[in-house]
Design brief:
It is a single chain. With about 150 residues, the protein is α+β, with helices and mostly antiparallel strands. It contains six helices and five strands. Strand 1 (about 70-75) and strand 2 (about 80-85) form a beta hairpin. The longest helix has 13 residues, at about 55-65. The protein binds zinc ion (ZN) (3 copies). One zinc ion binds next to loops.
């Protein structure tokens, strides 16, 4: 569960007035249990009868994404989704069926980056890694074994 305070602070620092509507959008974002699209966030706002306009939802999400408070995930389908998560560097493992995500640390990746630097002579400044599959709940509801490597 992500705290709304850092998102509100980031908006405030960037000069966005913390209106009731923006606060409500932030609350909606941190309440999402799974990754979501802008359209899905707006649908959630409507379902809660918040009365927040589509433009406010979309724009607040976009600003928070630009501010690095909400991460944009590129899904294998070519679509993208958003998720609020810890600001520290991490990666996501994402369920392709239900959209549940988990955060994972760099683990063995540092060594891989070192090898890439050695092999290519590049200075590597950043990287992204997203892993896709089925979460344990979705695995349990299918006959696909969880330990089968891709
Ligand atoms: Zn994240
Ligand atoms: Zn799942
Ligand atoms: Zn990393």
């Amino acid at each position: 569960m992500v705290d709304s305070a850092p998102l509100l602070t980031a908006l405030d620092r960037a000069g966005y007035r913390l209106t009731d509507a923006r606060r409500a959008v932030v609350q909606l974002i941190v309440d999402q249990p799974r990754h979501f699209s802008a359209a899905e966030l707006f649908a959630a706002a409507r379902a809660q009868r918040t009365g927040i306009g589509r433009a406010t939802v979309f724009r607040t999400l976009e600003v928070l994404s630009e501010l690095g408070q909400v991460e944009r995930l590129d899904l294998p389908s070519g679509k993208h989704a958003y998720i609020a998560c810890e600001p520290s560097h991490h990666h996501h493992v994402i369920c392709s069926r239900c959209g549940r995500t988990a955060e994972v640390a760099d683990a063995g990746l540092r060594r891989l980056v070192r090898d890439v630097v050695r092999q290519t002579g590049f200075r590597v400044d950043d990287h992204r890694l997203e892993l896709f599959g089925l979460c344990s709940a979705c695995v349990a509801s299918t006959s696909v074994p969880i330990d089968r490597p891709i």
